């Protein structure tokens, strides 16, 4: 019994460590495989995120831009995805005039430039009371021009008349103040309409009514 016990103990002593080593090696393999899978998943996720966050620098309108105006814009970096070809890159020059209005803060579409200027245009200077013009009137704004007759026979109430619609402001000379406090506003009109506008300014009081961006027509 003593010899058998020693033999059994010897066998057990040689078999148990081998079994433990096999278990440890198998566990090591699973650990390394899990680490490899985690690392691969991290790289795959980072790659997909980087593709989804590709950015492009394009032009954004600094203020409301009217039809026919020269765009004033600042570069902005955004993620547009497949739509990036629809907008002007900041590396491209902003040349030409706008074919349709662009609101402040909006990106400038590539097709927005290419406005056809008025053929045979004339610049007419109008005396306008500051209280009869839009606040912060500026070059590029679009207005309707109304005239109210100064003298009406028989004491009738003068009715304003629309002289021209959709006229672009060429310049606002706020420093050139007239006798009655009027400011000089220069507008660009076709030659055929110049005489009508001059007559309206001479025989009536001029009102400039702003045409909102959303109401301006695409050229």
Features:
single chain, 219 residues, alpha+beta, 3 domains, five-stranded antiparallel beta sheet, two-stranded antiparallel sheet, 7 strands, rod-shaped
Kindly describe this structure.
- The protein has 219 residues and is of the alpha+beta class.
- The chain folds into three domains: 1-52; 56-112; 121-214.
- The protein contains two helices and seven strands.
- The chain has helices at residues 2-52, 191-203, and strands at 56-61, 73-78, 121-128, 142-149, 161-177, 183-190, 204-210.
- It has a five-stranded antiparallel beta sheet with strand order 3-6-5-4-7, with helices on one face. The chain has a two-stranded antiparallel ribbon with strand order 1-2.
- β5 (161-177) and β6 form a beta hairpin.
- The longest helix is centred in the first third of the chain and has 51 residues, at 2-52.
- The N and C termini lie far apart (111 Å).
Quick summary:
The chain is an alpha+beta fold. Helix content is 29%, strand content 27%.
Rg, Å, rounded: 38 Å
Strand content: 25-35%
The percent range for helix content is 25-40%
Summed over residues and divided by their number, the pLDDT gives a mean of 78
**Given the helix and strand composition, which structural class is it?**
alpha+beta
How many structural units, i.e. domains? 3
The biggest sheet, with number of strands, parallel, antiparallel or mixed sense and barrel status, is: 5 strands, antiparallel
Count of distinct strands: 7
What would you call the quaternary organization?
single chain
Compressed to H and E, one letter per element, the order equals HEEEEEEHE
- Put simply, the count of helices is 2
Strand order of the largest sheet: 3-6-5-4-7
> Unreliable stretches, pLDDT < 50, 5 or more residues?
none
Q: Based on Cα principal axes, name the global outline.
A: rod-shaped
Distance between the termini: 111 Å
């Amino acid at each position: 019994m003593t010899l058998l016990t020693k033999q059994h103990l010897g066998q057990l002593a040689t078999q148990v460590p081998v079994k433990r080593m096999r278990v440890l090696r198998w566990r090591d393999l699973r650990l390394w495989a899990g680490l490899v899978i985690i690392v691969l998943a991290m790289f795959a996720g980072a790659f997909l995120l980087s593709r989804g966050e590709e950015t492009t620098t394009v032009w954004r309108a600094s203020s409301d831009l009217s039809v026919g105006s020269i765009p004033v814009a600042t570069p902005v970096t955004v993620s547009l995805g497949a739509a990036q070809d629809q907008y002007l890159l900041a590396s491209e020059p902003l040349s030409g005039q706008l074919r349709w209005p662009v609101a402040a803060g909006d990106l400038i579409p590539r097709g927005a430039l290419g406005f056809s200027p008025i053929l045979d245009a004339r610049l007419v200077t109008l005396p306008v009371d500051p209280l009869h013009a839009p606040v912060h009137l500026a070059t590029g704004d679009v207005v309707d021009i109304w005239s109210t007759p100064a003298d009406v026979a028989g004491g009738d109430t003068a009715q304003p008349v629309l002289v021209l619609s959709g006229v672009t402001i060429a310049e606002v000379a706020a420093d050139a103040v007239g006798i009655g406090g009027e400011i000089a506003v220069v507008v660009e009109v076709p030659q055929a309409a110049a005489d009508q506008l001059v007559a309206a300014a001479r025989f009536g009081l001029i009102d400039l009514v702003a045409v909102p961006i959303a109401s301006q027509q695409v050229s």
